[in-house]
User: What shape does this take?
Amino acid sequence: MTHIFDEEGTSIPVTLVKTENCQISQLKSIETDGYNAIQLADNKTDSARITKPMRGHLAKSGDESFKSFGEFRVPDSSTYKLGDTIGIEIFSPGQKVKVTGKSIGKGFAGNQKRHNFRRGPMTHGSKNHRLPGSIGAGSTPGRVYPGKKMAGQLGNAQTTIQTSEILHISSADQILVLKGSIPGKKNNELRISVKN
Assistant: This one.
């Protein structure tokens, strides 16, 4: 993350995202799959590092090997061809995009950190500061309902920012300048799709 300044001199927090060209590795249509979509392959790797079935799948679209795939719904998949590359040129400044990634893992967290619960009183002999307190009723229902907010794993989950805005595009370096923050940490893999 960094920040840029607009014409009035206001500081705008932004995130710089390095993009790669993706190759169309599969076309899905209503006739064969029940919906229109394209599968994009990215993250180039050595062919020895992927499985033999994956090599056969990628051989239909070209000779290169990839280890990451993503599927994107499109209005009509017949306008695309296997092996074509899709890059940063599909985006434009001012466009709203949906950014999906894995959030930073924070380990096992308590109720205050994970669910923003209030703490107990700190004075007058109270021994309940960060404890969960009561978690259910008595004999009826005699159990804790599923979905109860409790301590547990925080982060390391798929997260989506719905309305991230593209402020600037550097075509030479293939860098998108997105307004605000995005999920995950440095070198995280992201899925960026245009909002309909």
Remarks:
- The mean pLDDT is 94.
- The chain has three domains: 1-18+90-103+157-168+182-196, 20-86, 106-129+149-156.
